[in-house]
Amino acid sequence: MTKPAVARRHLPSSPFKPPVTRPPKQFAMGDRVTHDEHGLGRVIGIEDEVAVLVDFGSVQARIMSPYSKLAKL
């Protein structure tokens, strides 16, 4: 059994830049979005930063956080 990866802390004396932390993606009702698999869609529901419900025309999909394949247009 392997141990889970642990984020390493950045030492102030390190010559390397600290890792960049990106802010989490946030979507609002009615936002136009694109998805790598489903294509263009519109946000029709939000579940407390856990998931978003998107209408892609032919299918409605519940996309879970982190929204790696989903981008706001």
Automatic annotation (TrEMBL):
Report the SUPFAM superfamilies cross-referenced here: CarD-like (SSF141259)
Q: Which domain of life is it from?
A: Bacteria
Which intervals of the chain are annotated as region Disordered? 1-27
Taking every annotated instance into account, which residue ranges of this chain make up the domain CarD-like/TRCF RNAP-interacting? 27-72
Signal peptide, first to last residue: none
InterPro entries for this protein = CarD-like/TRCF_RID, CarD-like/TRCF_RID_sf
> Where along the chain is composition biased (Basic residues)?
1-11
Identify this protein by name: CarD-like/TRCF RNAP-interacting domain-containing protein
